[in-house]
Amino acid sequence: MTSIYFDHAATTPMRAEAIAVYADAAAAGPGNPSSLHASGRAARGRLTGARDTLAELLGCTASELVFTGSGTESDNTALFGAASVQRRKGRTGIVTTAVEHHAVLHACQRLEEQGFRLTLLPVDEWGRVSAADAVEAIDETTAVVSIMAGNNETGTLQPYAEIGEIARSRGAVMHVDAVQAFGYESFDLHAMPIDLLSVSAHKINGPQGVGLLYIRRGTPFQPLLQGGNQERARRAGTENVAGIAAFAEAAKLAAGNINARRRHAEDIRAALLQALASELGNDAIVLNGHADLRLPHIANVSFLGIDSETMLMNLDLAGVEASAGSACTSGSLQLSHVLTAMNVPRERLQTAIRFSFGLGNTRAEAEKTAKIVATISARLRKR
Ligand SMILES: Cc1ncc(COP(=O)(O)O)c(C=O)c1O
C-alpha cells in the first residue's frame, strides 16, 4: 500500500534537486569552512554560495544570515539573544501570542522564569491576534515582540508586519517565526519591519536539521552558543555544509516559485474539503482557522463525533498520514494549545485533524482520502 502523505507541516519530502546537491557536497570529501587549506576553501565556497542565494530570496544581505541546526534553534537564539541585550537597557517585557509554536512559547516561558514579564496576546475564534491588542501590550519597556507569520496547526496568518511597525516604533526588537510561511509568503526583509526571522529547511523540501536566522544589522543580539567564531561569532559550531547547500537549493525552488506552489497547495486543499463535504455532509465537519487569511497548505478539520486519536489511527491503517496538531504534541496527545486559545468548543478540539499538503500530492489523493474518511466515519458511527 502506498501511503498518502498529508503531513507536510510536520516535515516535507526532500526534493530530488536538493538531494543531488547534498550528495555532491557530501561526496566532495572533508572540508571545514573554517580551515584555510583548499578543502576548507571549497567548503567555504559552498557556504558562501548558499548564503548569497538565501539573502537574495529574503531581500537582505548575506552577512545578516546565520545558519543554525533547526527552526527551533533559530527561534531560541533570536529570543534569548535579543532579550538578554535588551534587558541591559532596562527593557524587561516579552510580547508574543498564545498560538506560537512551542519553540517560541517555551523559550518565552523560560525568559519569564528569568525575570522577564511575559504577555501572551489572545487570538480570536479564527486564531488571529489583533494589532489593537499589540498596541496596548507593547511599550517602552518591551524587549522583544515575537509573532509568527503563519500558524502551523491552522495556517492562520498573523498581522506581523503591522505589529512589527508598532514594536520597532517603541524600540522593541521584532522577531517573526516564518518556519511555516517561508516558501508560501514572500519576504523582502529590508523593506519590512522585522529584525529577526526564523526559517527551517525541512519545511520546504530541504534537509532536516538545518535552520536559518536573519539578524538585521544593528539588532541587539548576543549569541546563545559559546565556542568558535563560525557565522561571524553568532552561532558557534561547524556548519552543516552539505545540508546548507541543499537548503539553499530547496529555498530557490520554493521561494522562487511561490505562486505555483500556492496554486498547487490550494488546489489539493480545495479538492479535499469539497470531497469531504460531499462524502460526509456539511454538518459533519468544521474547518478550524481563518477561511481566507491563511497559508495555502494547511486544512484543520474537526470530524464531529470521532476523536482525533481514533481518526488518526484509522487513517494511518488505511494509508493516510495526517496529524492531530503540531508534531511534537501529537505523540503525547495533549489538547492543542492553539485551538484552546481560539476558544474552540471542546468537541471540535477533541476531533481536530490537520491535513497539510505539498510536493507530490495530487487531487486524486485528496479525493481518495475523503472516501477513506467517509468509510472510517461510517464504521465508527455504527458501533
Ligand atoms: C511555526 C513553527 N516554528 C518552529 C518550528 C520548529 O522547526 P524545526 O522542526 O526545524 O525545529 C516548527 C516546526 O514544526 C513550526 O511549525
Mean pLDDT: 96
Helix content: 40-55%
**Percent in strands:** 5-15%
What is the CATH homology-level superfamily of the largest domain? Answer: Type I PLP-dependent aspartate aminotransferase-like (Major domain)
> Radius of gyration in whole Å, from Cα?
21 Å
Largest sheet features: 7 strands, mixed
* Tally of separate helices: 14
Taken in chain order, the helices and strands follow as EHHEHEHEHEHEEEHHHEEHEHHHEH
Structural class: alpha/beta
DSSP, total strands: 12
- The number of domains: 2
CATH architecture classification name of the largest domain: 3-Layer(aba) Sandwich
* CATH hierarchy class name of the largest domain: Alpha Beta
Low-confidence stretches: none
CA-CA gap between termini? 26 Å
User: How are the strands ordered across the major sheet?
Assistant: 2-8-7-6-5-3-4
Bound molecule kinds, no repeats? pyridoxal-5'-phosphate
**How would you describe the shape?**
globular
CATH topology of the largest domain: Aspartate Aminotransferase, domain 2
What does this structure look like?
Strands 2-8-7-6-5-3-4 form a seven-stranded mixed beta sheet, sandwiched between helices. A three-stranded antiparallel beta sheet has the order 9-10-12. Strands 1-11 form a two-stranded parallel ribbon. The protein contains 14 helices and twelve strands. It folds into two domains: 134 residues, Alpha-Beta Complex (Aspartate Aminotransferase, domain 1), CATH 3.90.1150; 240 residues, Type I PLP-dependent aspartate aminotransferase-like (Major domain) (Aspartate Aminotransferase, domain 2). It is of the alpha/beta class. Helix 1 runs antiparallel to helix 8. The mean pLDDT is 96. It starts with a strand and ends with a helix. Helices cover 43% and strands 14% of the residues. The site of pyridoxal-5'-phosphate (PLP) has 15 residues, from helix 3.
